[in-house]
Amino acid sequence: MSVREEQREKVVNLLAGHLLETGLSQTSLRQLASAAGVSDRMLLYYFPDKAAVLSAAIERVAASLAGALAELVPEGTTLPPHTLLAQLSRLTMREDMRPVFRVWVEIVAAARQEEPYTTLAATIIAGFRDWIVARLDMADGADRDATAMAILAFVDGLALVEICCGMDAAKGAANAVENLLNH
């Protein structure tokens, strides 16, 4: 890896940390450069434009979620939908994942307005759906895609409840659904 590539990786890590700490509210080019410890010009040396800067940082945040998902349910493992839903609900409530899901909700909100959020949101949600589909233990002929999207909708809904109503409300919702599925 070249010096430039190493420095770019360091900048991307710093930017991802900045997003997790502040969300999308502090994403002017000047704020991003400051968070990365470089000048605006140097940031544009590593990336062609602000959209590329944000894309790289958001992709790094998404990679942290992918890592947590891989630990939660390793590749090749399948679970019944209710078990997978319960596991993903608990992941959503984990303290270390809360900033990731908060950034995700902000990306989704921004996706209706502008790039790169529209493309990033579509890519992330497709990847998450595919991850869920691959881990569903369901009968042949069952609609895996619809089931995956239902699970995804619930997980995203938990993130919204946590942001709007607090962790107690989100944990209560997760527990209520788990109780419904177990009875």
Automatic annotation (TrEMBL):
Segments forming domain HTH tetR-type: 5-65
Known DNA-binding region: 28-47
The entry's keywords: DNA-binding, Transcription, Transcription regulation
Signal peptide stretch: none
A Pfam family hit: TetR_N
InterPro entries: Homeodomain-like_sf, HTH-type_TetR-like_transc_reg, HTH_TetR, Tet_transcr_reg_TetR-rel_C_sf
Superkingdom of the organism of origin: Bacteria
PROSITE patterns recorded: HTH_TETR_2
Name of the protein in its database record: TetR/AcrR family transcriptional regulator
Species in which this protein is naturally found: Novosphingobium jiangmenense
